[in-house]
From TrEMBL:
Name listed for the protein in its UniProt record: Endonuclease NucS
Keyword check for Iron: no
Key words of the record: Cytoplasm, DNA-binding, Endonuclease, Hydrolase, Nuclease, Plasmid
Gene name in the database record: nucS
Subcellular location: Cytoplasm
InterPro entries named in the record: Endonuclease_NucS, NucS_C, NucS_N, NucS_N_sf, tRNA_endonuc-like_dom_sf
Claim: Hydrolase is one of the keywords in the record: yes
Single GO MF annotation: single-stranded DNA endodeoxyribonuclease activity
The EC number(s) this enzyme carries: 3.1.-.-
Coiled-coil ranges per UniProt: none
Domain called Endonuclease NucS N-terminal PH-like: residue spans: 50-138
Name of the top EC class for this enzyme: hydrolase
Amino acid sequence: MTPSWQTAGTDLCSIRNLLRMLRTQSTEHTPEELAQFINEHVHQQNILTQIIGLSEVQYHGRAASTADQGSYLTIIKPDGSIQIHKSKGVKPMNWQPKTNEIYARVENGECVLTALRHRPEELVRITFLETVIAQAFILAEEGGFILQGSESEMQEVLAHHPEIIEPGLIVLERELMVSSGGIDLYARDSTGRYVVVELKRARATQSAVSQLARYVRSIQLALPAGSEVRGILAAPDITKPALLELQARKLEFKEIKALPSIKKDVSPTLFE
């Protein structure tokens, strides 16, 4: 059983983190005040707005639909996308992946949120009848996906399972030392071309691209003239500038989101 003081401490820490993110909230407001609240926050960078209460949803586009009055959670993300959730299920009952215009105004005494998309033409209207709470949260910049374990462990797994990078890939050496540093994986593809693989367990940046390019150049200089050498940057994600530089240098990116575990042999001890 978890000690009560530990649970209380964990809850207190969570509350503090929540309060740091919470920009403002409103629990008692008129339709005019709710419309002002929405308009103030939906156009700000890194602000997520959510509204909980009794509402009605209408959609017009490739089809037309109306959701009966119900208690729904409406989420408006910083990129303008909208999700409307019911009390059950993971998938939203209605959503707008991208909006060109989004605003709230009072119509017939009720606050109405309108979200327009131009291509394809779609419209979502949410009429807030009774709002329990409206909140605006400040979200930090995306941190990116990071694989568990170290890059050394990532290297070990991919050395055992190079097919994750590319079918037919054969690893020749790990940590091959060249004039520019140590190559994570030195391999040969199914057509016989040599491949330099640089591994990153987090989002790859331009420095990783430059590092890979140096390793590829080192191998090219060590091989007979005219030998083709490929360079692959394997990581969970890559920044846009890094991807553009990678393509300009005619190098490749392989997305690695998950890795299998490998069984390690355990040698018996003297007393077993």
